[in-house]
Every structure is written in structure tokens, then in C-alpha cells.
Amino acid sequence: MIYVLEDEASIRKLIVYTLENAQIEAVGFESAKPFWSALRERLPDAVLLDIMLPEEDGFEVLKKLRAASATAKIPVMILSAKGTEFDKVMGLDLGADDYLPKPFGLMELTARARSLLRRADANTASRSDEFTVGGLYVSVPRRQAIAYGEPAALTYKEFEILIYLLKNRGIVLTREQIMSGVWGMDYDGESRTVDVHIRTLRQKLGRCEDIIETVRGVGYRIS
Ligand code: CA
């Protein structure tokens, strides 16, 4: 999924249309505000970013993306009508992965978008011990969970439960499975232990508490 932030409707639509024709999922945004809202719901694999935007410009957006751990590694390609050396240098300095001056050919756009997605795949492969769900970023080696930029002070077991749910993302786990997966013991009827830990875990995740779903009568899941 590629997010396209471009205020000029005709260009935005053309980009989205071109990418979708090439079987690349894309969503367009005309300004930074809806872009940030969407990003909180779902992280894209890559971002195409215009520089001249109303309110928040592309440089500001890029700075923020790079500053937050959850979005720091999302590949970004800058699109700039100005095509000036300044935009290019500034963009790459701020951490853009590629730069495409406008006007651009549609074949070139598609080729560059694909290369951006390959970069995203490579990142994912090297980040198997990192997870990002909505506004939550988790690093296993650093034993760090960050919810919308705020580190969550999790206990050892809370962190283990979170990792266990993340590694089984999309699967509903029963309390028994969580017990044996996290505590390494057969379930002994103390399912409340799991519930209590999930409750405190959610509290500590603050705005990210909703990522852990309760599946009534079955268990818990992170979608
Ligand atoms: Ca523009």
C-alpha cells in the first residue's frame, strides 16, 4: 500500500490511477491532516510525497515521519514540481529515499514505486523482531513498546504477552494458549491470570489499547 500526498487533484488522481493499473494499491491525500489520520489507522509500505502543500509542507511531513520510530523506515519518494537542486538535496538530507522531479513519465513513476516497495520488503525482512500496529511500535531486542511516541512501562510478562500476540497476529489465542506460550506451562484453570495481565497491558498501551481485541468466549487477538 502506497500513500500519495499531493494537493493537486489531477496529479494525485493520475498517480493513484497509474499505480493501481500496475497492481500497486494506492491511496491519495490532498493534505497532511487526512494523511496523518490514515497513518494512525494503517502504516503504508511507502509514501510518495509532494513538497509544496497547503498547511504542512512535504519537508515537514518527511521530518515527522523520520522522527517517529514507527514510521522512520518507511521508504519515501519526493515529488517536486520545482525540480530544483535545493528540493532534491533538502529532501535527501531529511531522509527521503528517492526523488522524482515533475513532470514525470508514468512508466518511470511505476518503476520507481516498485523499487520503493522492494526497499520496504527488504526493511521488513530485516525487522522481523520489530512490530508496528497502528500507533504502536515494538522492538523485541530492546524490549521496548512505544504507543504514539510514548514508551509504555510494561512488566516482563506483559511484554511477553504482547510479543506472543504480535507473533500470532490475526489469530485468536485462547487463554490456555497464552498461558502455555508465555508462562510455559499447561493451563491449570487460572485463566484470570491472563485476563489480569491483558487488562494492565491495555491500560499501559494507552491510546493503543484497542489493538488487543477480546474475542468473546474464545480469547484475545491483535488484528
Ligand atoms: Ca503541490
What labels describe this entry?
223 residues; alpha/beta; Rossmann fold; Arc Repressor Mutant, subunit A; five-stranded parallel β-sheet; four-stranded antiparallel β-sheet; 8 helices; 12 strands; 44% helix; elongated; binds calcium ion
Which spans have pLDDT < 50 for at least 5 consecutive residues?
none
For the report, how would you describe the main beta sheet? 5 strands, parallel
Q: What is the CATH architecture descriptor of the largest domain?
A: 3-Layer(aba) Sandwich
- Can you tell me the overall shape? elongated
Written as H for each helix and E for each strand, in order along the chain, the element string is EHEHEHEHEHEEEEHEHHEE
Number of helices: 8
Number of domains: 2
CATH topology of the largest domain: Rossmann fold
Helix residue percentage? 40-55%
User: How much is the radius of gyration in Å?
Assistant: 20 Å
